[in-house]
Specification:
Layout (H helix, E strand, L loop, with lengths): L3 H7 L4 E5 L4 H12 L3 E6 L18 E5 L12 E4 L6 H4 L3 H22 L2 E7 L26 H21 L2 E7 L2 E2 L10 H10 L4 E4 L5 E3 L1 E2 H13 L7 E3 L4 E3 H12 L5 E4 L14 H7 L7 H15 L1
Parallel strand pairs: 1-2, 1-4, 2-3, 4-5, 5-6, 6-11, 7-10, 8-13
Antiparallel strand pairs: 9-12
Length: 321
């Protein structure tokens, strides 16, 4: 007779742990996992996440929310672990830099120990910030990066780099079934209003008729990925056998911040003016995902173009302000 776990696996259903599941990306991932028929445990300390992001799931019998810090050991018999726990915007991760490092390192250790103990597959949500202010453009997974470990951004950049190291060491030493993705700039509904990310900043300033502020001359570039494309990439990576990564998950479309600001002002019908402020330290000048590997290994590439994604995101922010 099949036990409960083997029965879930037999019918294709997984028991899944999502750390950071009440955040912007995490809540969309929980939605998708529930939609796909899985059982989900969401772990979040609500530092940057919100219960409101999970309102549509709280009454679902296949969903469990636990308010808990990933720095504390946690045990559950699960099949998959998605480790998303960590503030992802400079406003938040620079507010408590030591906590950011602890979340990245201790949180990763706790989740890897859990994966090791129960034989779970674990996906680490790493970041394009491991490339730092890149000297290679676009950025491929073979590029080692250009990161200043003692800068104010170092707590996040080096924390994520160390988390990747831990993943691969647990894989080599203990045989833990890891997956590592490097996420490029992602936007969409449920972004926090106060997190300082460029897309949400520009949209909110434009909707409120405030000056749209750009740090520097606006020539810095980013690759902007809509959240649904990211979630699809995460699911494909977790479902893929025999490929551990790291792999870039991002939109290779490259835009300057000035282009983004002008597009947002036009799409919102705003009368806002663009104001240039002093450039921030160690802000990467170029960012563009090379997704050749994702196409080859995962048959994945983004589907949603910038204007389509912005339209949905603008509609969301109109509804919340």
């Amino acid at each position: 007779m099949l036990n409960k776990r083997h029965y879930r696996l037999f019918i294709g259903m997984k028991k899944v742990l999502v750390t950071g599941g009440a955040g912007f990306v995490g809540s969309h991932l929980c939605d998708r996992l529930i939609q796909d028929g899985h059982e989900v445990i969401c772990l979040d300390n609500l530092f940057t996440g919100s219960r409101a992001n999970l309102a549509q799931l709280l009454d679902n019998p296949r969903f469990t929310f636990i308010e808990r810090d990933v720095q504390q050991p946690f045990f559950a018999k699960v099949d998959w672990i998605f480790n998303l726990a960590c503030p992802a915007s400079p406003v938040h991760y620079q507010h408590e830099p030591v906590e950011t490092v602890r979340t990245n390192v201790l949180g990763m250790l706790n989740m890897l120990e859990l994966a090791k103990a129960v034989g779970a597959r674990i996906l680490q949500a790493s970041t394009s910030e491991v490339y730092g202010d890149p000297l290679e453009h676009p950025q491929r997974e073979t590029y080692w990066g250009n990161v200043d470990p003692i800068s104010r951004r170092g707590c996040y950049d080096e924390g994520k780099r160390c988390a990747e190291t831990l993943c691969f060491d647990y894989h080599r030493e203990y045989g833990v079934d890891i997956r590592v993705i490097r996420i490029f700039n992602t936007y969409g509904p449920r972004m926090a209003q106060n997190d300082g990310r460029v897309v949400s900043n520009f949209i909110l300033q434009a909707l409120r008729g405030e000056p749209v502020t750009i740090y520097g001359d606006g020539s810095h570039t980013r690759s902007f990925q809509y959240v649904d494309d990211l979630i699809e990439g995460m699911i494909k990576m977790m479902s893929q056998d025999g490929f551990v990564g790291p792999v870039n998950i991002g939109n290779p479309g490259e835009f300057t911040l000035l282009e983004l600001a002008k597009t947002v002002i036009e799409m919102t019908g705003s009368s806002s003016e663009i104001v240039h402020l002093a450039e921030t330290d160690h802000d990467p000048k170029k960012r563009q995902a090379d997704i050749t590997l994702a196409k080859e290994k995962l048959s994945w590439e983004p589907k949603i173009q910038l204007r389509e994604g912005l339209e949905k995101t603008i509609a969301y922010f109109r509804s919340v302000i």
